[in-house]
Automatic annotation (TrEMBL):
<dbReference type="InterPro" id="IPR003819">
    <property type="entry name" value="TauD/TfdA-like"/>
</dbReference>
<feature type="domain" description="TauD/TfdA-like">
    <location>
        <begin position="127"/>
        <end position="372"/>
    </location>
</feature>
<feature type="domain" description="Gamma-butyrobetaine hydroxylase-like N-terminal">
    <location>
        <begin position="28"/>
        <end position="105"/>
    </location>
</feature>
<keyword id="KW-0560">Oxidoreductase</keyword>
<dbReference type="InterPro" id="IPR010376">
    <property type="entry name" value="GBBH-like_N"/>
</dbReference>
<dbReference type="InterPro" id="IPR042098">
    <property type="entry name" value="TauD-like_sf"/>
</dbReference>
<keyword id="KW-0479">Metal-binding</keyword>
<comment type="similarity">
    <text>Belongs to the gamma-BBH/TMLD family.</text>
</comment>
<protein>
    <submittedName>
        <fullName>TauD/TfdA family dioxygenase</fullName>
    </submittedName>
</protein>
<dbReference type="GO" id="GO:0045329">
    <property type="term" value="P:carnitine biosynthetic process"/>
</dbReference>
<dbReference type="Pfam" id="PF06155">
    <property type="entry name" value="GBBH-like_N"/>
</dbReference>
<keyword id="KW-0223">Dioxygenase</keyword>
<dbReference type="Pfam" id="PF02668">
    <property type="entry name" value="TauD"/>
</dbReference>
<keyword id="KW-0408">Iron</keyword>
<dbReference type="GO" id="GO:0016706">
    <property type="term" value="F:2-oxoglutarate-dependent dioxygenase activity"/>
</dbReference>
<dbReference type="InterPro" id="IPR038492">
    <property type="entry name" value="GBBH-like_N_sf"/>
</dbReference>
<dbReference type="InterPro" id="IPR050411">
    <property type="entry name" value="AlphaKG_dependent_hydroxylases"/>
</dbReference>
Length: 391
């Protein structure tokens, strides 16, 4: 790669695993033949749009400064050739020149095979009552190293982790959360105290049984990660229960596809109203991503508003809701544990439903502290850590 054209519009590294053997301009496309025989066609606009040269990309931010409209419509390259490093060289008819690193071009190629490779998402590890719980030690998470990455990856893929030996001190949960990223503040504070309170503004702050739920389904974006750190748990009752919302979704999709369809398409109302805030949001219980995978569960029965749907749809909606609730109570799907002081649950609040059995506040002290971090903070942290650890 030449000295002046040495930048790429990304901070990731793109090792050369395949070199370009041939580059041909034909039929309004540049057809690139790779060393393994794969052929990737590229449109002229696409190539011009992604030119990584210093005129097109800012040298420090690596953000694009060029806009495609600044190139004449119908602009075509006059020549295309394999570079000595295995990349692609282009000379454009308006005099501009572009060079593409082989690794970058391969990683972003959009022929069917390349797209299929790229679309392989991280696995969703579904779990139920008998499955092992990914458990980590607080001290091991202090360094930006493989242990931290293992924890973050478990959070991404399984959605539920237990961290042991967090100092039994107020605000220690913030230290843990900051190992991932910024804390997301809400109307319940930067940090919230879960204990029975004299004038509760949430069912959580009483001793009542909290059925399986996600926190803040009332918000357009539900908090991604939830941290719950135990400072005291001497009261009778108050055990923790977790149900994998994606496991419920998978079971419904397979066994009750009609109910699954209803839950992915019917907006449900979630309301959290008190004297100073009034959050309301309508969204289906299960959300699908653009590939059809379940990417979110949203549910708290105690925050649900009345269902607003066409009369003809109501019976099917209630059938589906009953089915969802039945799965949420299925012992085979419920992981039950009692938190000890120093334990912290960290889980994907947009996936995992959590619950607490009733406790008697008069029987002993129970105090958890919690906070939230958004899911894309987690994913960004994983990417940068992988970059730094050379994965
Ligand atoms: C909550 C909650 C769990 C518990 O505060 O939303 O679910 O164990 N608490 O008290
Ligand atoms: Zn350029
Ligand atoms: Zn909760």
């Amino acid at each position: 790669m030449s000295q002046t054209l040495d930048i790429i519009s990304d901070w990731r590294r793109f090792p050369t695993r395949h070199r370009i053997a041939r580059a041909e301009i034909a039929g309004g496309l540049v057809a690139v033949t790779w060393s393994d025989g794969r052929i990737s066609p590229f449109h002229f606009d696409w190539l011009r749009d992604n030119c990584p040269c210093r005129q097109c990309v800012h040298g420090q931010t690596r953000e694009q400064v060029f806009e495609i409209i600044d190139a004449p419509e119908g602009l075509a390259p006059s020549e295309a050739w394999p570079e000595p490093d295995g990349g692609l060289g282009l000379a454009w008819r308006d005099g501009h020149q572009s060079r593409f690193e082989p690794g970058w071009l391969r990683a972003n190629a959009y022929d069917a095979e390349s797209r299929a490779e790229r679309r392989t998402p991280p696995p969703q590890v579904l779990w139920g009552a008998g499955d092992p719980l990914p458990t980590f030690d607080f001290a091991a998470l202090a360094e930006d190293g493989p242990d931290l990455l293992a924890w973050l990856t478990a959070l991404r893929d399984a959605g539920l982790t237990l961290v042991k030996n967090v100092p039994v001190e107020r605000e220690a949960v913030m230290t843990l959360a900051r190992r991932v990223a910024f804390i997301r503040q809400t109307n319940f504070g930067v940090l919230f105290d879960v204990e029975s309170k004299p004038n509760p503004d949430s069912a959580a702050y009483t001793g009542v049984n909290l059925p399986p739920h996600t926190d803040l389904p009332t918000r357009e974006l539900q908090p991604g990660l939830q941290f719950l750190h135990c400072l005291a748990n001497q009261a009778i009752g108050g055990d923790s229960i977790f149900v994998d919302g994606f496991a419920i979704a998978a079971a419904m999709r397979q066994q009750h596809p009609d109910d699954f369809h209803v839950l992915t398409t019917t907006p449900m109302a979630f309301w959290n109203k008190d004297t100073v805030t009034d959050y309301r949001w309508n969204a289906p219980l299960l959300a699908l991503d653009d590939t059809g995978r379940v990417c979110e569960a949203r549910f708290a029965n105690f925050l649900r508003g009345p269902i607003d749907a066409e009369p003809e749809a109501m019976a099917a909606i209630y059938r589906a809701l009953r089915r969802f609730l039945a799965f949420s109570r299925d012992p085979a799907l419920r992981l039950v544990r009692r938190l000890e002081p120093g334990d912290a649950w960290v889980f994907d609040n947009r996936r995992v439903l959590h619950a607490r059995t009733e406790f008697d506040p008069a029987s002993g002290r129970r105090h958890l502290q919690g906070c939230y971090v958004d899911r894309d903070e987690l994913i960004s942290r994983i990417r940068v850590l992988e970059r730094e650890l050379g994965n």
